[in-house]
């Protein structure tokens, strides 16, 4: 049996350890030394924190991993990412390798398959695209809210400026006066409500008394219902008698009487008849007045001097004529 020295054993263990270390390191980087892998490249302007060993997925299936990231030609705007595809799949040439992240911030490379008939081979470069990060997504969601908040703050600022402009010294005084007037109005309203409560008092309120009087009136109407019915019956009978009477004939006679009266008045207003002459001719009136005056004098003279008109004298002696009192009064005047 071959005996190995301690130095040989140490050397063998060292080689095995180094081999295992290399294999483990490659495994951690996503490389497999015992399978046929496909390596493709993608160039990004921004990798959003992509790191080696991040998964490469197609339709949610992990088909490989990111093996390396480096700056291309010392240009930091171009980052060359090496993708190792471990699954045996065909990737069309117009496919897009898109960097995305989940809610926890884990980065992955999502390969969106195209529709080309030619497929990528190992060493080819695929189209690259980058999704917005969670921060970008939040910014997109928050930007409208921020704009609305800014508008709201601007409106609040305008309101505050307006309030400050209103609440100057004069405005404060006016506001205090308005508050005092409002207090006075409220006191008046309190007095008014107290008065209303007094009126609405179920025992001594005016409205209750009014309802009581109304109830008394309706009670009287109810008690005198028969009398009221009799009055209405009598009224109905009276109106029926008037309706059944010769009202038309009576009205015609009344109209004829009115016409005759109008004709008589018209004749009195003219000088055709005696009455018209007496009413309208002043000369006739004066003559009549004069005749009446003479008649009165004649009667007065007959009363004073009857012997002037009837003479019974046996001896032929004449009496003296006495003056009329009316003539004496006229002379004295």
TrEMBL record:
Transmembrane annotation, as ranges: 12-28
InterPro entries documented for this protein: Mce/MlaD, MlaD_Phospholipid_Transporter
Keyword Magnesium: no
Pfam families per the UniProt record, alphabetical: MlaD
Residue ranges of coiled coil: 244-271
Keyword line: Coiled coil, Membrane, Transmembrane, Transmembrane helix
Keyword Thylakoid recorded: no
Domain Mce/MlaD: 37-112
The protein's name in its UniProt record: Phospholipid/cholesterol/gamma-HCH transport system substrate-binding protein
Source organism per UniProt: Chitinophaga terrae
């Amino acid at each position: 049996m071959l005996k190995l020295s301690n130095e040989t054993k140490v050397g063998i263990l060292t080689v095995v350890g180094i081999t295992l270390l290399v294999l483990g390191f490659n495994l951690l980087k996503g490389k497999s030394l015992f399978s046929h892998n496909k390596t493709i490249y993608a160039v990004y302007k921004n990798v959003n924190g992509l790191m080696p060993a991040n998964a490469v997925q197609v339709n949610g299936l992990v088909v490989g991993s990111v093996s390396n990231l480096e700056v291309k030609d010392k240009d930091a705007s171009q980052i060359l990412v090496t993708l190792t595809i471990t699954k045996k799949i065909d990737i069309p040439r117009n496919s897009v390798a898109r960097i995305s992240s989940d809610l926890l911030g884990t980065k992955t490379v999502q390969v969106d398959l195209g529709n080309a008939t030619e497929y990528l081979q190992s060493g080819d470069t695929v189209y690259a695209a980058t999704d917005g990060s969670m921060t970008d997504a939040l910014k997109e969601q928050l930007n409208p809210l921020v704009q609305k908040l800014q508008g709201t703050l601007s409106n609040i600022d305008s309101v505050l400026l307006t309030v400050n402009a209103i609440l100057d010294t004069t405005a404060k005084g006016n506001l205090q006066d308005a508050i005092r007037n409002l207090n006075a109005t409220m006191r008046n309203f309190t007095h008014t409500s107290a008065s209303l409560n007094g009126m609405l008092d179920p025992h001594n309120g005016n409205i209750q008394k009014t309802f009581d009087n109304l109830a008394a009136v309706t009670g009287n109407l109810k008690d005198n219902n028969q009398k009221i019915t009799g009055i209405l019956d009598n009224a109905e009978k009276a109106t029926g008698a008037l309706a059944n009477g010769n009202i038309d004939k009576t009205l015609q006679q009344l109209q004829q009487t009115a016409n005759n009266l109008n004709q008589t008045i018209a004749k009195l207003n003219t000088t055709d008849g005696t009455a018209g002459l007496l009413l309208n001719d002043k000369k006739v009136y004066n003559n009549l007045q004069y005749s009446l005056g003479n008649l009165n004098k004649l009667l007065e003279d007959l009363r004073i001097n009857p012997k002037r008109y009837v003479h019974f004298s046996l001896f032929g002696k004449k009496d003296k004529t006495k003056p009329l009192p009316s003539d004496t009064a006229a002379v004295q005047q």
